[in-house]
């Protein structure tokens, strides 16, 4: 029997807030157990829907800076006045274990990851329209008008970086967007460059088979 041992890879997912990235990522995790979502460290204030250690690891700025100095992060950024960073250790361990690791990070982080891991797949998720984005943010009801304005302006800026990504997915309907991402991941998984090791049938056994009389 021919067996292929394939390396895990990094899946970077970015999206303007309100594009539905969180829901999509949760579905991707449910679909395949050999996927791991990296938990970032941040200095931002906890929100009511945050779970420490699950959505983020929350630290004070001083501690974050100490971690930077210790080389704890694979990449980090300052986004809207708060620090966010991807821990190195977690990711290296999981990739070595054959897991595909999902990073939910913004555009600058995605670019840095792409420079470090040329095998990483970067996916940008878009809402069907900016009108829909505003409707979703209003419906969510967690932001003031001023904040919604900021988020939308940020989205216009982030979309300018789309050329650094490998794939774009429009999230009109979540289940369709997830199916499309699964197709992308399936094709990526079978790239020859991701094969770590090939085990073939033993040549002696095959020769015996060839020499056997019918
Ligand atoms: P939020 O505060 O809304 O949870 O996240 C703000 C932005 O920071 C989002 O675009 C999110 O994807 C991004 N982000 C979260 N963790 C990291 C990280 O570790 N590194 C980078 N570069 N961005 C991150």
Commentary on this structure:
With about 210 residues, the chain is an alpha/beta fold. The protein has one domain: P-loop containing nucleotide triphosphate hydrolases (Rossmann fold). It is about 45% helix and about 25% strand. It has eight helices and eleven strands. The strands form three sheets. The chain has a five-stranded parallel beta sheet with strand order 3-8-2-9-10, sandwiched between helices. It has a four-stranded mixed beta sheet with strand order 5-4-7-6. A hairpin with a 2-residue loop joins β6 and β7. α1 packs across α7. It starts with a strand and ends with a helix. Bound molecules: guanosine-5'-monophosphate (5GP).
Descriptive key words:
214 residues; alpha/beta; Rossmann fold; five-stranded parallel sheet; 8 helices; 43% helix; 24% strand; globular; binds guanosine-5'-monophosphate
What gap, in angstroms, lies between the N and C termini? 21 Å
Give unreliable regions as ranges. Answer: none
Whole-number tally of structural domains: 1
Number of strands: 11
Largest sheet report: 5 strands, parallel
Question: Summed up, what is this model?
Answer:
The protein is an alpha/beta fold and 214 residues long. Helix content is 43%, strand content 24%. It has a single domain, classed as Rossmann fold.
Layout of helices and strands:
Layout: E1 3-6, E2 10-14, H1 21-31, E3 35-37, E4 40-42, E5 56-58, H2 61-70, E6 73-79, E7 82-87, H3 88-96, E8 100-104, H4 107-116, E9 121-126, H5 130-140, H6 145-159, E10 167-170, H7 174-189, E11 195-199, H8 203-211
Parallel strand pairs: 2-8, 2-9, 3-8, 4-5, 9-10
Antiparallel strand pairs: 1-11, 4-7, 6-7
The structure holds guanosine-5'-monophosphate.
